[in-house]
TrEMBL record:
UniProt protein name: SAM-dependent methyltransferase
GO terms assigned for molecular function: methyltransferase activity
Annotated ranges, domain Methyltransferase type: 61-151
InterPro entries for this protein: Methyltransf_11, Methyltransf_Superfamily, SAM-dependent_MTases_sf
Signal peptide range in chain numbering: none
Source superkingdom: Bacteria
Pfam annotation, one family: Methyltransf_11
Native organism: Promicromonospora iranensis
């Protein structure tokens, strides 16, 4: 479904989507752990790692940690890493790789205020509707130290596109819900929670409206 506006979804719809996500990603966990990251994703992470090193950051939370591929890189670079993921299967695989990982929703992180110097969240927040996205960004700000950095990457589109994606070739479970926002929408949402210090987009293929949106944001103080 393609639209120019987005309205909040009923809570029951969100719960159903979360159940579908858990089923899908639990089934995919073992395979995803063996799937290498694309080079441009690795490059974004390495640039963020360098930035955190320059700022003497030590603790990093990953929201949507999956099987821990990025987490292993953060740990190898000497950072104190914590991962969170909605999928128990993904968390099990991450823990098997000796990572500190927790089953949790991005909209309700089980961590104390100001617990982390930085947050990393890739290919996760585009699965949230607008109400959930606002809650997740507020949670990221809450657990960050004042002025901390968070990096966000998500799949977007040239026009707002909302709804389940077609099933991939590997049938892991129910089709996943995507909320693909335009660049302007994403920048506006992020700007409500911090200062966007870095931004780029990468088309999935030449001429496509489907793109990856990446930002590094300096957190604002938590809302009262």
């Amino acid at each position: 479904m393609t639209s120019t506006t987005s309205t909040p979804d009923p809570p029951a719809d969100r719960e159903a989507r979360r159940a579908d996500f858990r089923a899908y990603y639990d089934a995919e966990a073992a395979d995803r752990a063996l799937r290498p990251m694309p080079s441009w994703r690795d490059a974004a992470r390495e640039e963020f790692l360098a930035r955190l090193t320059d700022e003497r950051s030590r603790t990093v939370l990953e929201v949507g940690c999956g099987p821990g591929l990025d987490g292993a890189a953060f740990t190898a670079a000497g950072f104190a890493y914590t991962g969170a993921d909605l999928s128990p299967g993904m968390v099990e695989v991450a823990r098997a790789a000796s990572l500190d990982a927790h089953v949790a929703s991005a909209t309700d992180l089980p961590f104390e205020d100001h617990s982390f110097d930085a947050v990393w969240s890739m290919s996760t927040l585009m699965h949230l509707d607008d109400t959930e996205l606002d809650a997740a960004l507020s949670e990221i700000i809450r657990v960050l130290v004042p002025g901390g950095l968070f990096a966000v990457g998500m799949w977007g589109a040239s026009e707002l596109t909302v709804g389940p994606a077609a099933k991939p070739d590997e049938d892991y479970g129910p089709p996943r819900y995507f909320h693909r926002r335009t660049d302007a929408m994403v920048r506006e949402r992020l700007g409500e929670h911090g200062e966007v210090e870095s931004w780029w987009t990468r088309l999935s293929r030449p001429g496509s409206g489907h793109r990856y949106q990446y930002a590094v944001v300096r957190a604002l103080s938590p809302r009262p």
